[in-house]
Amino acid sequence: SYAEGGGQGDKAGTAVGRGRLSEDLASLKDFRVIFRQEPKLSVGNHFGSRLVFDRDGYLFITLGENNDRPTAQDLDKLQGKVVRIYPDGKVPDDNPFVGQAGVRPEIWSYGHRNPQGAALNPWTGILWENEHGPK
């Protein structure tokens, strides 16, 4: 994951890509972006972004609210959310908000400030996240 520019007024957001490390370990081959936080709202704050694969192979991505706190409650935006996707970027049909008008289907949970730590509980396999720090 990385901070990606290109938003209106030099704004940025979190993006996630995948590729293969070259044989000489010097570059990525076949790189493609599988997820983009939209709209891009950050001016350099609160990107969040931890990646966790669960036991079923789903990819969870934590996303900061870009220091625009009310957006964490807006279900038409990806700021302040944890999203769940497949490793190719597709959205699972059983995500909580799939099929709801005006709601981003990637959303797994919302109302987060700046989730910078995430892990699976080793006994239950449930995703845990915390708002600051990778530990």
In words, what does this structure look like?
- The protein is an all-beta fold and about 140 residues long.
- The protein has a single domain (about 1-130), classed as 6 Propeller (Neuraminidase).
- About 0% of the residues lie in helices and about 35% in strands.
- The chain has no helices and nine strands.
- It has strands at about 1-5, 15-20, 30-35, 50-55, 60-65, 80-85, 105-110, 115-120, 125-130.
- The protein is globular and about 45 Å long.
- The chain starts with a strand and ends in a 5-residue tail after the last strand.
- It holds the Pfam family GSDH.
- This is PQQ-dependent sugar dehydrogenase.
Record the strand order, biggest sheet.
Answer: 4-5-6-7
End-to-end separation in angstroms reads: 18 Å
Going by CATH, what is the homologous superfamily? TolB, C-terminal domain
Query: Measured on Cα atoms, how large is the radius of gyration?
Result: 15 Å
Supply the CATH class: Mainly Beta
Helix amount, in percent?
A: under 10%
Number of strands: 9
CATH topology: Neuraminidase
CATH architecture: 6 Propeller
Count of individual helical segments: 0
Low-confidence stretches: none
Instruction: Outline the biggest β-sheet.
Output: 4 strands, antiparallel
Shape designation: globular
The amount of beta strand, in percent, is 35-45%
Mean pLDDT: 93
Instruction: Output the helix-strand order.
Output: EEEEEEEEE
The total tally of domains equals 1
Category by helix and strand content: mainly beta
InterPro entries: 6-blade_b-propeller_TolB-like, Glc/Sorbosone_DH, Quinoprot_gluc/sorb_DH_b-prop
Domain Glucose/Sorbosone dehydrogenase: 1-135
Protein name: PQQ-dependent sugar dehydrogenase
Organism: Pseudomonas fluorescens
